[in-house]
Amino acid sequence: MTTLGRTIQVRGELRAAEDVTVHGRVDGPILCEGGALTVGVTADLLGDLVARDITIHGRVSGQIVATDVVDIREDAIVSGTIVSPRLILNDGGHFNGRVEPQHLDAALRVARYNQHKRDAG
Length: 121
Description:
The longest helix has 17 residues, at 104-120. The mean pLDDT is 93. This protein has one domain. The protein contains 1 helix and 13 strands; from the N terminus they run βββββββββββββα. The chain starts with a strand and ends with a helix. Strands 1, 2, 3, 4, 5, 6, 7, 8, 9, 10, 11, 12 and 13 form a 13-stranded parallel sheet that branches. By secondary structure, the protein is mainly β. The chain has one helix spanning 104-120; strands spanning 2-4, 9-11, 14-15, 20-22, 25-27, 30-39, 44-46, 49-56, 59-61, 64-72, 77-83, 87-89, 94-99.
């Protein structure tokens, strides 16, 4: 498991083949397709997220794609589109956007295509 502390700021793509916890700021996509992504209370993420499980305690803006579940916890602030077969919105969690569970396969194909395109460029 990898943890990015609250003083870490990343601009660009972040990829991981293991579980990731972010407490800092990330401007760009986070790709953790086979693992879990945890967004800490102090985290501020701007970009698309792709992971198996995504648990959000902090702030996220972008498209969120999870192959299993997205869990928005109390005091989390989320805006964008969520594509996941399961969504948990806990009391006190804030969500502004759309939920599109039926588009999971298409969203994963687009995310992989964009990743391939970034690799080629």
